[in-house]
Amino acid sequence: MKKNKLTMGIVAGIAGVAGMANAQQYINPEGTGEVLIYPYYTVNNGINTLYSVVNTTADAKAVKVRFLEGENTVEVLDFNVYMSPFDVWTGGLVATDSTVPGNVGQPSAYHTTSDTSCAPYLDKARQEFLPFAIDASQAPFSGINSSLQRGTDGHIEVLEMAVHAGPAAAASLHGSDGVPANCAFFEAAWNDDSWTEDVDLATTGGLMGSAVLVNVNEGLAMTYDAVAVDGFWPAGVGSHTEPGNLSPSISNGDTSATVFNGGVATTSAYASGAEAISSLFIKQNIYNEYALDAAVAGKSEWVITFPTKNPHVNTAPLPVIPPFVNEWNGTTSCHEFTLSIYDREEQEEQAQGGTVSPEPPSGANPALCYEVNVVEFILPSGAPGATSSIFGSDNLVTVTTPAGAKTESGWANMGFISDSGTPYVDANGYQGLPVAGFAAQQFTNGGAADGLLAQYAGLFVHKGLVVSGTAPTR
Q: Nearest 5°: CA angle at 272, between 270 and 277?
């Protein structure tokens, strides 16, 4: 496949690259775009997830907000928001037991918001997660693994579908009281199963977002920014669908993508939008730190999210689409990784055999088997739990830090490469897997004065290595 390379000395930033390359998909380092990927939400372990979507433009926008469960990236909630110029949409996720027939009593979540922006048909006070897409995706597997508990952690996807002028723009506009002019307009527009009341214009991007994971009981708040993808829509023409429609998705974007690698912007063409957006996230290795200082009850977990995995592994009877290699079998889609762990004084441990739980076969690498995975680091004296200690996730791999460590803290290098030493490779030679996420660290000061809640936490985005068939490794 022919590639077009543009050096950073020729172009002034990624916006220039995208413009010269006919607006192929790219991750915008400025943090705004047509698509936002929020790598993690959870309602486990007493945590609520709060999120925001900001329209930084003077355009009225139709936006799709989607929540995807953490095992196989299947939709558990999906709705439209009609944002006025410079508008902000906010919402939160809270743990509950499902009341949906067929899933009653299962651990689940509900969405709540006090935002006044127009969201047709959404129960703003308490919209429970729904099992319908999970049930459909599990039908080939005799309905196994259909519990809504799968949705207690996952990730969030926001897509700009269209820009509006005329009546729709006027209906979404907030007055001096902060209330949109006519939210009923949007439900009426969809009640006849078609959108005929206005013209959908080309998308303009400019969305930004953030999320905060709040544990009220422990006095913790951990924040992160959404990853922004720009140049998503071919020729800037989106797809405006009714509320609840599972299209558009991140599979519907432009089939070309621009990736930065070693200071060079490389534009590549792919057979599908799913492959193109996956290339933006591919890393052969990711790096981050852990901190387990016993004096402050240190805890460390990595969130490893594959936000584009579903359209690659749910392809039966067709082959799995690279760089993924194992299809979803109803319960897992596993991909091996290597993990080198170093304490702060260069003592090293390779995560295999007895250093991980569940333990792989002797000499084999551990594997990440879900769309959202939590890797928990523990000291050699620690014991693995059934769920992770910070996020309460059961999509869990536990790793033990070096037995001969001189320090309780350090860093790790995770490589997306199989036990045979063969890297995962996509259609254009990029090596690794498309990954997003962060490391979380939590500390408790047991020596704080009486009456003080001394809890601390932070999130640290993964760093990584991009390797392609034409770029040198380093």
A: 80
CA 305/CA 39 separation, integer angstroms = 6
DSSP secondary structure code for residue 270 in this structure: -
Asked if the bond preceding 248 is cis, omega within 30° of 0, the reply is: yes
Report the distance separating Cα 356 and Cα 264, nearest Å: 37
The rounded distance, in Å, linking the Cα atoms of 73 and 77 is: 12
Q: How many residues does the chain have?
A: 474
Does residue 14 register a pLDDT over 70? no
Which residues are CB-neighbours of 346 under 8 A, at least 6 positions away? none
- Spatial CA neighbour of 13 closest among 37, 1, 2, 29: 29
pLDDT tens digits along 43-90: 999 999 999 999 999 999 999 999 999 999 999 999 999 999 999 999
Q: Answer whether 18's CB lies under 8 Å from 11's CB.
A: no
From 74, 215, 45, 66, select the one nearest 147 (Cα to Cα).
Answer: 74
Torsional sign, CA 448, 449, 453, 456: negative
What single DSSP character describes residue 339? E
Give Cα separations from 171 to 160, 179, 198, 209, 322 (angstroms): 18, 10, 11, 23, 44
pLDDT value for 422: 85
- 473: pLDDT strictly greater than 50: no
Distance CA 364, CA 362 (A): 6
What is the C-alpha to C-alpha distance for residues 75 and 133, in angstroms, rounded to an integer? 6
Segment holding 313, helix H or strand E: helix 310-313
Do residues 32 and 116 lie in contact, with contact meaning Cβ atoms separated by under 8 Å? no
Dist. CA 214–CA 197, nearest whole Å: 41
Closest CA relative to residue 198, chosen from 234, 238, 171, 233? 171
Q: Of 411, 126, 107, which is closest to residue 286 (Cα–Cα)?
A: 411
What is the model's pTM?
0.91
CB-based contacts of 274, cutoff 8 Å, min separation 6: 250, 251, 308, 311, 312, 321
Q: Which residue has the tokens 């001969």?
A: 404
Q: Are 211 and 38 a contacting pair, CB within 8 Å?
A: yes
Report which residue type is found at 254. Answer: D
Strand spans (E) along 56-126: 60-69, 75-83, 88-97, 107-112
Question: What per-residue confidence (pLDDT) applies to 409?
Answer: 94
